Fold these 4 entries.
Entry 1:
Amino acid sequence: MSAGRAGRVGGVGRVGRVGYGLVGPRRERHAIPVGDLDALSLPVGDDGVVIGVDSEGRPAVLGINRPSPYEVTLIGGLWTAQVLALRAAATGARVAVETGRAQVWSGLAQAAGGGQPCVTLHEVGRVPPQGASAGSPVLVVRDCGMRPPRGRVVAGPWQSVLTLLPYLSPTAPRLLQNSALVGVQRVSPDEAEQIGRLMNLPRRAVDSLPTLGDGVTLWCTSRDRQFVMTQGTEAETGLLGPARRID
């Protein structure tokens, strides 16, 4: 229903038709020339978490809650991972954080969900089965340092896994190869070259990685690439501070 039509619903008469409910409003149809159809667009992606805006200012959406296993690797900062966790929780997902630095996650866990335990913290290697389902999807965030061990809880139906790497590490090639989506924030020129080879990035993208601003991420798959700027909301900035690459 369009915004204009929604604003006039109050004028609907309450006259019934057997088997068809109430009679709707009567007005002229809206029409545009066929040649103008290409100018119409909806600036949204797939259903999911709005992670920022693309280079043209359109919302960029990450579909975390999926019926099939979904692995994501983020080579970047804690701030971005925490914003993603907060926004996933806001969509109704439960978030399980596997971390060796619970102190940097405790404030977020307490603030998320308005008192509901939607974000839980677990020691490395101690994440219990989450019982993910379509009605209760789960995001597991693995904040386990440069060499995260193989997790006990892995991606599955309605359970996605986001692994955070602060920098490129010896485990990165395996993680990037197994990930459906990879995010890369500002890295050194040498790391950019390695990531470019692993992800088959064009030269322009490789050259840009060492110069990315705080909050900017290159999200890429084996075929697609998109730069996204993530900006914290007022509540997120109050809780996590401003966007930053270095923790």
Entry 2:
Amino acid sequence: MPSHEQLRELLDPATTVLMTVECQQGVVGTESALPELAAEARSSGCLANVARLVSAAHLAGVQVLHAVAERRPDGRGANRNARLFRAAGRLPVQQLAGTRAVRVAPPIEVADEDFVVRRLHGLSPLAGTDVDPLLRNLGCRTLLVTGVSANVAIPNAVFDAVNLGYTAVVPSDAIAGVPSDYAPAMIRNTLALVATIATTEDVLGSWKRPGPDRPQAT
């Protein structure tokens, strides 16, 4: 774990972007296509912690970006080259563009200044999307990765961020996967090798700047 001062420097609001990954109604909401994952995201505290981080980011002046996975009703442009994609096409809840399923799920709040980046293909929020050029234009150096799932999208996001030259930070209690012991194993054996691992409280503490003219992130 980094020291408080190291994390504060790493998560400088001027050069940090907080990204939520697939925290959408059809994935982690009450009407999820993946009820086991949705239940884990909620029972583990992951979703609540993502919401806390987003709220604190808004207060601290950290840019927030919500990465959403969706598909067209006709499926055009979507991948079919893996079992995961074919199985997703048979699920009772589809992540169709413009529907409730692809809205960011409560209790996460989307502010007017947030970016919402939608992808129609692939496994990663970064590969082949607008995320990388947006990050560069924003002057991002550190990408804070939160959301689901630790099985697929989160490691994809971290690997792509590192390959593109960003420093990745992962709050260990703000990501989730299935089964429940998978996320800790993924963090310990893989993500810790390429990303800085912290906790939600660590991140919130790094953004607290007490002073008369600036509210504290809580």
Entry 3:
Amino acid sequence: MEQQTWKIGELAKLTGLTVRALHHYDQIGLLSPSQLSAKDHRLYTAKDIVRLQQIISLKQLGFSLEEIKELLENKSLNHLQIINMQLASVKKQMALQEELFLKLETIQELLQAQKDVCVNQFMKIIEVTNMIEKYFTKEQLEKMKQQTQQFSDEEKQQIDSEWLQLITNIRAELAKNTPTNNQKVLQLASQWQALTNQFVAGDQAIIESAERFYAENPNSPLQHDVDKELYLYIQEAMSHI
């Protein structure tokens, strides 16, 4: 192993991670700098970089930070196994690229629905495309597309309107700190489930993928103004149904 060391700011710049994220990993005992400089600066070593790569790989594979910490501490997976798992994931993503036509069709529909598309909207389309590939399989995307094609333009507009109104109503109850087992909130949760099922045909695997997407991307343009707090609120309400 090389003897070179890195300060936290240097490591953040080289890896594209934030100093805040590295501080968080340190605070929860997931990854801490191994050495101290003569001036008591905490320094990351090559060994720390190897562990960081394992953390990032496992995180990309969908493991939570708590699960990653347990896996690494118990040595449940060695470095080669983690690399192999990520390779399999990357191969799957490469296969999805072959289905790019499906994504381009979706973008085409967005553009045809709007006469003027600003640069920011193009950026959102790129972001959405990347996120979709991460959370949904080719088969799931095709199934959702088939479900959506069953609706007329008027029906799609009506569903969009229902979603926006539903989110407004949920946010109002959240602002009032209404308990999630309140009858009115339970009714809103039932409406959430019903609207979701219109697009996934009751497919539990798609629902789970969508839930992971919502949980991990609170500021996504696909969220329809559903922030993390609102999402957790309605999820808790659905647990009472």
Entry 4:
Amino acid sequence: MPKRFVVAASEFTDLPRFPVGFELAEALTAAAGDLHAKGSPGDTMNTAVALAVRLLPDAEHAGISEIQRGGRLRSLAWTDETVRFATEPRQGGHTPHPDWERLWTTPVVRTDDSEADGGGNVLSGLGLRSALSLRLRADRRRLTVLTAYARKPQAFDEDATRIGRLFTAHVSLALDSATVREQLTEAMRTRDLIGQATGILMERLDIDAAGAFESLVKASQRENVKLRDLARRIVDANSGTGGRGVTER
């Protein structure tokens, strides 16, 4: 199951909405500070959707989704249940927003009125007339998209689009930074775990560090288990929490 992150915009009441006279640079600087203060990609996305509602003129809801080639979707963050429902996969996991496919080739897609041409789509059914979708990340296989929604038609004009693009540039940088931090943290944990497992095997098999590590690698390949997972199994078994260890063959 994909991990999902939910945050209420009301948790950020200290952040002003974007009033007339409040400098855009100052607002974005404050937003960037909040984004970069988060320790994980999930927390960064939580903050981003809440900030989108605070910063984008006329935005009432916001969400972040990941779209794979072929239209398959998973929702990563949303401000409320309306957005959660709007971005839930439909018909075998495919996106309920056909316009999102255009984000493979353009950084912004705007829906001025979901009830145009008779409505009958997910957004109009939820009373969401306007949407502003902004690309956060893209590679050959997937897109990450931040979308702001409003209940009135034509809510997002060129100014809102400009602010949205500046804001998502900050979100993208913060998300990349948080991802790198998370990967480095995981690498450190993995290194420590493998070190512990190697030490256990040295004592158990009466071999040196190189031999213990080689034994661990061979067992990983033989059992088709990631080295990290096998190391965790050994450490857990040694500490009495269960699991199978490594045996010589």
